[in-house]
Amino acid sequence: MSLSRSQVPGLRGKSGEVQAARDTCCDSRNVAAAKVEPVPSGFTLLEVTLVLLIMAMLVTVAVPLLPSVGRTRLEAAADRLATTMTYLADEASLSGRIYRLTIDIDDSHWDVAALAPYAATDGTAALPEFHEDPDDPLAKSTDLPPDVTIDAVIDTNGETSAGSRAIWFLPEGLPESVRVRFGESGGATTTVLLDATREAAWREETEEPQ
After folding, report:
1. Residues paired with 129 in a beta bridge
2. How far apart are alpha carbons 104 and 106 in whole angstroms?
3. pLDDT tens digits, residue range 37-89?
4. Measuring CA to CA, how many Å separate 141 from each of 51, 66, 136, 185, 201?
């Protein structure tokens, strides 16, 4: 014969105590959860103000140390000419071709052309001609940015500050050393040196206006 919970002495009372304990525990958890306050998110006005103040101080210190846009274009143009000169010197030596680099001071650009001799069909001597090589990515005509100019080409005979000046690149080497001076609207200048001894070119240090 089986007995129910109500028929067992003391069991009913213990079940009520267990249920009461469970209810008390749940109530305490609910009270604890209700007492937990949400953590505020975001920044206070004071924190934002301090961050903006620090950023303003950093910008004030750093901006004068950064090069101007004009100076950056100036040095980029000079570096490009130096790279072109070094390339032409190497290419003339390796391929046996003659290159002509024409610096146009008035229009602030340069042209690159290679000697392309032709044999005359009538037996007379053909005049050599120079043509730009469309398949050569570095031997290209280049125009400078509007705020960058070519001021002068300087060699052992003096300074050429107007017109155009041809620079030759021969298979046997460079016939002369030259300097090409660049300027920009802000007054800064820089110079590219083509060294015949080293058969290479590089940009010299930029000079700021006084």
Report:
1. 116
2. 6
3. 555 566 788 887 888 888 877 766 554 444 455 578 899 999 999 999 999 99
4. 49, 30, 11, 23, 18
Per DSSP, the three-state class of 112 is strand
| Sheet with 158-160, side-by-side order of all strands | 158-160, 148-155, 178-184, 189-195, 200-203
Q: Is 210 exposed, middle or buried (0-12, 13-18, 19+ CB in 10 A)?
A: exposed
Strands (E), the chain: 99-104, 109-116, 129-131, 142-143, 148-155, 158-160, 164-169, 178-184, 189-195, 200-203
Question: In Å, how far are 54, 62, 87, 154 from 115, measured between CA atoms?
Answer: 61, 50, 16, 24
What does DSSP say about strands 178-184 and 129-131: parallel, antiparallel, or unpaired?
A: unpaired
- Calculate the CA 189 to chain-centre distance: 20
Q: Which residues contact 128 (CB under 8 A, 6 or more apart)?
A: 115, 116, 117, 118
Q: How far is CA 39 from CA 36, 42, 60, in A?
A: 9, 10, 36
Q: Which two tokens mark 129?
A: 């001609």
Helix-, strand-, coil-residue percentages of the chain, each rounded to 5: 35, 25, 35
pLDDT digits (tens, 9 = 90+) for 134-192: 777 777 788 998 889 999 999 999 999 999 999 999 999 999 999 999 999 888 999 99
